[in-house]
Amino acid sequence: MIRRLGLLDMLQLAAGISMAGPMFVVGFELLRTGRPVRGAVFLGLGAFALYFPTYLVNRIGGPRAWIRRRLGRGDADETERDDESGDGKWSLLERLRR
Question: Whole-angstrom Cα distance, residue 86 to residue 90?
């Protein structure tokens, strides 16, 4: 089955390209003018910026997960994880998920 791009996928791609595009241009220009180390650094930063929005949404959860959490219909696994920690303090990621 072929998975089509949804609206959120397109927004993630647009956000990544808008951040990474200038970095790729600068990286290629630095490589072309004979500064390979700086060019490689900018290309690496561009690759990171291209995939960071997708990573962030996948790590925190998509819009359906956000809505489920807001409505109080969380998964049973989440409540078990909360009970196992027992310290009452949430990490930054857990606070973002809630």
Answer: 10
Q: How far apart are CA 90 and CA 85, in angstroms?
A: 9
Helices and strands counted in the chain (H then E): 5, 0
Residue with tokens 């809505």: 67
3-state class (DSSP) for residue 10: helix
Query: What's the pTM value of the predicted model, to 2 decimals?
Result: 0.56
pLDDT at position 54: 79
Three-class SS state of 4:
coil
The two structure tokens encoding residue 78? 């989440």
Neighbours of 54 (CB within 10 A): 15
The backbone torsions φ and ψ at residue 5, rounded to the nearest 5 degrees and listed phi first, read -75, 130
E strand or H helix at 44: helix 36-60
What is the rounded average pLDDT of the residues 12-36? 91
